[in-house]
Amino acid sequence: MTAGPHPLEPVDALRRIAFLLERERAETRRVEAYRKAAAVILPLGEQGVRDRVTAGTLTELPGIGPSTSAVIEQVVAGAVPDKLTDLESRAGEPLVTGGERVREALRGDLHSHSDWSDGGSPIEEMVASAMELGHEYLALTDHSPRLTVAHGLTADRLRRQLAVVDAVNAHTAPGFTLLKAIEVDILDDGGLDQDPDLLAELDVRVASVHSKLRMERAAMTRRMVAAVRNPLTSVLGHCTGRRVSPRRGDRGARSGSGTRPPSDFDAAAVFAACAETGTAVEINSRPERQDPPGELLRQAIEAGCLFALSTDAHAPGQLDFLDYGCERAQRHGVPLERVVNTWPVERLREWARPSNGA
C-alpha cells in the first residue's frame, strides 16, 4: 500500500505563506504576522491546536489575528487555506523572465542575513528555506561590528554564531552546508572591520562599503582596491552601493527609503585588482540594487573577473531573488564558468582560502 502525501500542518502553511509574501516583497509587518503565528502555535502541538479551533479560542493567543486564525482553521478542517492557494497561484513562474540557464547552474547563495544582525528570521529558518529551494550551500553573512545600525557582530558574537553554524551542519550534512561567512565593512582606509585571525577561520568573506558612499573618487578607488587586495577578501559586495528603487520587505528598511546614486570610483582599477587577485565581483540580486549596473557588469566581464551571484537576502522568501540576478547575468553575457557559486562546495572553499588571494 502506497502512503499518500503528508497532510499539511498549520505551522507549515503559515511558514509557506510568509515565504511567498517575502518573495513578492510584501510589507514586513504582514510577513511577520504569519511567522509570529507559526511560532505561537508550534509549542501547542497538533492536538493543542485542534482543541483551540474546536473551542473557538485561537484568537485569544497573542499574535493570532483573524487572517492567521483563518489559515489555521482551514488546515485543521483538512483544506488548503485560501490565502495559500492565492499565493501559490502566483508563485509558479519565475520572478522575472529570462536567466533560467544561469539559475539552473547555481548551487548556492553567498550573501544572506539572519536575525543575528539585520535579517528578520533565525538562522534555522534561512537554512530550511535554502534547502527547500534546492541549494547545496548558503553563506551566512551577517554584518560586522562597525555597522551598529544593523546590529553588526562583535568578535565574541561571531564566535558564538560559528558554534551555531557547526550545530546546523551536524544536522544537514552531507546534503547541505551552511558556510561560515560574514559581510565585513570596508573601512575608510580599505581595512576590514573584524579581527583578521577570526576572518581567516571563515569559509567566505564578502567585503562591502556601507559608509561614506559619496567619498571623493580617488579616495574611494584606493579604499576599494586596498580591500580587494586583502587576501581575506573573497567577494566585493554591491560595489556601487546604489539603490534604484525604494527598499521593501526588510525589517531594517526605513519607511520612505528611496533611491541612492552609485559611488564614484575608477571601475577599471577596481576590476583589474579583482581579476588579478581572484576576488569575485558580486552580482547583487536585490531588485532595488541591481548592482553592478549593466555597463560596469560588462566592464567586469571584459576585465576577466570572477562573479558571485547572490541575493543579499534578509528574509527566507528573499532567497528566491536569485531570479533577478540570473536574468541580468544572462542578458549581459556573464560566463557561467566564472560564477563561483556554480562550483561544488569544496572547490568554492578552496578558492576562498586566504592563501589563494595572497
Write a structural description:
This protein is α/β, with parallel strands linked by helices and 358 residues long. The protein has 2 domains: 10-91, DNA polymerase, domain 1 (Orthogonal Bundle), CATH 1.10.150; 100-357, TIM Barrel (Alpha-Beta Barrel). The protein is 44% helix and 9% strand. It has 15 helices and 7 strands. Strand 5 (235-236), helix 11 (267-277) and strand 6 form a beta-alpha-beta unit. It is elongated.
N→C terminal distance: 60 Å
**Total tally of structural domains:** 2
The average pLDDT score comes to: 93
CATH architecture of the largest domain: Alpha-Beta Barrel
Helix content: 40-55%
Task: Give a nutshell description of this structure.
The protein is an alpha/beta fold and 358 residues long. The protein is built from 15 helices and 7 strands. Helix 11 crosses helix 12.
What descriptors fit this protein?
disordered N terminus; DNA polymerase, domain 1; alpha/beta; elongated; single chain; 358 residues
What is the strand and helix layout of this fold?
Elements: H1 10-23, H2 28-41, H3 45-55, H4 66-76, H5 82-91, H6 100-105, E1 108-109, H7 123-132, E2 137-140, H8 155-172, E3 177-185, H9 196-200, E4 204-208, H10 217-229, E5 235-236, H11 267-277, E6 280-284, H12 294-303, E7 306-310, H13 322-332, H14 345-352, H15 354-357
Parallel strand pairs: 1-2, 2-3, 3-4, 4-5, 5-6, 6-7
